[in-house]
Amino acid sequence: MTIAFPPLRVQPQQQRAEIELAINLAEGIVPPLWPLDGAIAVNPLAGFEELAFEQALEEGAALFDARTTLPVSIWRKLLAAGRLTREALRRAAIEALGGYSEAFVMVGPDVSRLDCLMARLTELPPPVPHATPEDPAMDLVAKWCAAFFDGGTASVTMPGRAKGLYRAVLALIGHDAQLTALAQGTPRALLAEVPRDPIDAVAQGLDVLAVAEGERIAFLRGLIARLPGWAGHIRWRQHHADAALVEAAPATMADLLALMLLVVRAAPATRARPRVAPVIADVTGQLARHFALERERFDTGLEAVTTADEAALSAIFQRAAEVVYRDTLVPRLTPPAPAAEDRPAAQLVMCIDVRSEPYRRAFEAQGRYETFGYAGFFGLMIAVHTPNQPRQRMLPVLVAPQQDLTMVAAPGQEAQAAEAIALERRAAATRDLFGTLKGGAATAFSTAEAVGPLAGAMMVARTLFPRAAEAVGRRLKGDPSALAPSLDADLPGRGLAFAERLAYARALFALTGMKRHTARLVVLAGHRGQTVNNPYGAAYDCGACAGHGGAANARAMAAIMNDPQVRAALAEDGAGVPEDTIFVPAEHDTTLDEVTLFDTCCLPASHAEDLGQLKAALARAGEANRARRAGLLHRPAADLEIGAKHWGEVRPEWGLAGNAAFIVAPRALTAPVDLEGRAFLHSYDWTGDKTGEALATILTAPMVVAQWINCQYNFSTADNRRFGAGDKTVHNPVGRLGVLRGNGGDLAVGLPLQALFHDDGTPAHVPQRLLTIVYAPFALVEQVISTQAVLRRLFGNGWVQLVVIDPDTGAARRWRGDQEMQRDASGCSAFEALEEIMA
């Protein structure tokens, strides 16, 4: 069967510009999707942040055909397990009904609207779960995307990639039996005559499908939402990837849309996403039977209850969970007593990552130790160059690197560094040779026969002796820690100038509130995770810095802080760092809870005793935190090391599951409270930030990243099929870019099922919006928000809940979601008293 179409014509320049604008506006509904080896957390509904949270969820759910919070049946399990309370659920239900006067309208003898809504929430049969059918038309497009973006993994590369995605696929798709089946015949005429330019093809496709001009953006958004994974990958290529990585195979959103429209024109029945009609329950009848009343009594006055769908009911549960968490945590955060002036035995600066908080607590329990929370990249705007490896950005993707550092041999480790470089070069050559041999028509079988016994032996070792297998692999790779970033500005195009070093050093104190009267040893600890045979391994590293560990940043920052010129300049500020203070770089392995100290050979003998005591304290803290985490994973503490090294492990740790709060305050505010590994902790002292510059930096950078992480976990949990990655057991990595679930379809855009749920299906992560708590004067916080559009959007639209605690009175106030700026009696314009809300 062939499809009629108008004669090919070149679009006028004005119409072409309009099509390009429509594509640019449409593509904003999906965020960029980073490759697996540089994965970062993203909010899958970031394109809707200009809307109020509730409206964004409604529109996002409709566009992506997805759930935006957990089903009612799972919320009931969480209620029964005590993760939220029935009283909080009642309060949320009253709010949903419009307040007390509406909630307690009687609809029968001793039966109120609230009683009916609570029955729907907790007792009546839950709504039928949302069903998402397959989309064979877009699966066809996704298949060709996988072939085009392969990245060299396949032994036979798709021809014509240099021409771009659309043109390359157009030259081959006519031979695809899947297209023939969809179109019920090969649309040869369409393939021959369709424009070769993707913009022209999109314009013609919209004309042929009779999409009105006022509906074109919405129509294109609907198409993009059917493949958010591949669309997100294209957005990453266009806006974030290094040009050298993508220039051999160019692709734009116009290419993707042109392919989608081609398939839709060939098979018009695929124009709209396949959907399953929802099951409409007789809610009125259910209520009548439940309360043993005549049905007629429920015919009026209950529309808000009977018409509430699963999304509306689930939103009430989520609101209750948010209220329980907020009202339990905030009252426990009371203004701290003045800090003692005693010099601590050592200080530890760790990433704000939620996994750092329980380790910090365990470390503080070991003696006179003080900890701080700071962004894990230590504020360094750097990329690093390691021999035989691509350039790596070592900072959040919100910003671009400003300096490049070369990885060179660390002092005293020249031999180990040379060995590591040689082993990596040899391994790379072996990988290339093996890839060539296994993909060759004449060598594939002989290669399999030759390496089969070795591969089998390695499988046995990885299964039965994971520690030994990991040790062998480590010896074959050498010691990568023998390489450290060089600050030397004499290297061509590399290094840090003195002014840059000094600025980074000053920022460490300004953004954390750390006093310059530091301990003899100050540990700067980045972090990473450890896992084997896991495409999502990078998700256990830093959630902001493109999935890289923080060792390089920690070593660079320590080198800056130990620089005599920098120390002299800090002294000229009026408050210098003590001469006997040494900054020690480190890395926290969050899977094993081990902290590795680097470059300790450079410490003088005068600090040997301090170093020994510090190592012992770090080890004890790791042991204590391992025991705590083992309970959360339902396994012995000793088993965590095996899990980190076993190739069959699907849950080496819980990652950032459970994240719920971002707290900007001195450690003294949170030290008395066990935050259960659910809070991002950024140290901050408002008394040294009179202008609010430091607070603005914290809220517009680290907090925004925390919100991305929070949203990724929330939506991946709510609908793991649409916003997550499904079951790890069916993952199929594609070109080191992402994973497919099975042998086709879209790239997964979120986290795997095992990172979010226990084996019995109970969620380890309870979806709730990020609660940001700031310990600072109300006026200072309001001043910062008023000058930052991103904060007015996130707080004002309800994407992030904000509570501010006044340092003088201890009063807690919540930022009003309506952004009203009328001053109340206390002089606070945009806050309302949290005590009144909690009463």
Silhouette:
globular
Name the poorly predicted regions: 1-8, 819-827
Biggest sheet, open or closed, and with what strands and sense?
6 strands, mixed
Q: What is the spatial order of strands in the main beta sheet?
A: 13-12-16-17-18-19
Please report the number of helical segments.
Answer: 33
Mean pLDDT: 88
Could you give the count of β-strands? 19
**For the CA atoms, what is the radius of gyration?**
29 Å
- What share of the residues does DSSP label as strand, in percent? 5-15%
Helix content: 40-55%
Give the helix/strand class.
alpha/beta
Q: How far from one another are the termini? A: 69 Å
What does this structure look like?
- The chain is an alpha/beta fold.
- It has 33 helices and 19 strands.
- The strands form five sheets. The protein has a six-stranded mixed β-sheet with strand order 13-12-16-17-18-19. Strands 4-3-9-10-11 form a five-stranded mixed β-sheet, sandwiched between helices.
- Strand 3, helix 19 and strand 4 form a beta-alpha-beta unit.
- Helix 1 packs across helix 11 and helix 23 packs across helix 25.
- The protein is globular and about 80 Å long.
- The protein starts with 12 loop residues before the first helix and ends with a helix.
- The N terminus is likely disordered.
In short:
The protein is an alpha/beta fold and 839 residues long. The protein has 33 helices and 19 strands. It starts with 12 loop residues before the first helix and ends with a helix.
Please give the structural blueprint.
Layout lengths: L12 H14 L26 H12 L7 H9 L5 H12 L2 H4 L2 E3 L2 E2 H10 L13 H13 L16 H6 L6 H7 L4 H6 L4 H11 L7 H9 L3 H12 L3 H4 L6 H14 L16 H9 L11 H4 L3 H20 L16 E6 L4 H9 L4 E6 L7 E4 L6 E2 L9 E7 L4 H26 L4 H21 L1 H12 L5 E4 L11 H15 L8 E8 L22 H11 L2 H9 L9 E8 L4 E4 L10 H26 L5 H7 L15 E4 L2 H4 L8 E4 L10 H8 L1 H17 L12 E4 L3 E4 L28 E6 L2 H9 L2 H8 L3 E6 L6 E4 L15 E3 H5 L1
Parallel strand pairs: 3-4, 3-9, 5-7, 9-10, 12-13, 12-16, 16-17
Antiparallel strand pairs: 1-2, 5-6, 7-8, 10-11, 14-15, 17-18, 18-19
Helix pairs in contact: 1-11, 1-12, 4-6, 4-18, 7-15, 11-15, 19-26, 20-21, 21-22, 23-25
